[in-house]
Amino acid sequence: MFDPTVFDNLKVVIEGYIYDLDLEGKINVIGRSDIVDLASMVRKYLITIEDARKSKRSIIIEMEIPHRELSGELLETNEKPGCYVTVTFCENNGTHEYDELLLKKLKRSWGKQHFVKLFLTKEITDLSVKYHHKYMVEFQTLFGEDSIDDLINILDHSISLLGLNSKR
């Protein structure tokens, strides 16, 4: 038996919370990845969800523990190891116009302490032109086992924003 790391413990909490919401029919889990990058010694967990009403928007919740945090925890040289969290709202759109209301809401909610970024991508094929919008919030604090309530609040707030409609 091994002693789980902070990454393992937070992953179980996030995954359990999200799958409970999925079972209740509030959201749909549409993707999941659990990655161990041996080149950079990083553990990463991603779970992608969408509104149960199948809106055009989805959310990727990403949790990562860099090698210095992981090794510090395993070697017991780091008293309070933690993980970084990024929340990305993804939207496929027929136009280059992005949702200003969502961007303002993200900046108002988290922009003072954390990085809020907008990525616009244009995909051109022989048959069509598509636009992909990503609204990313990179949290600049480490989340540890004492931050579980904060993490759940971030998940709840992100899920509530998933159904946010623009006034365009």
The biggest beta sheet reads:
6 strands, antiparallel
What integer is the average pLDDT? Answer: 90
Instruction: Determine the fraction of residues in helical runs and give it as a percent range.
Output: 25-40%
Please count the beta strands (DSSP E, at least 2 residues each). Answer: 6
What structural category characterises the helix and strand content? Answer: alpha+beta
Strand order of the largest sheet: 1-2-3-4-6-5
Shape: globular
Total separate domains? 1
The succession of helices and strands, N to C, reads: HEEEHEHEEH
Write the layout of secondary structure elements.
Blueprint: H1 6-23, E1 27-37, E2 42-51, E3 57-65, H2 67-74, E4 84-93, H3 100-110, E5 115-124, E6 129-138, H4 148-162
Question: How would you characterize this protein structure?
Answer:
The chain is an alpha+beta fold. The chain has one domain. Helices cover 31% and strands 36% of the residues. It contains four helices and six strands. It has helices at 6-23, 67-74, 100-110, 148-162, and strands at residues 27-37, 42-51, 57-65, 84-93, 115-124, 129-138. The protein has a six-stranded antiparallel sheet. A hairpin with a 5-residue loop joins strand 2 (42-51) and strand 3 (57-65). Helix 1 (6-23) packs parallel to helix 4. The chain is globular, with a radius of gyration of 17 Å. The mean pLDDT is 90. This is Group-specific protein. It comes from Metabacillus endolithicus.
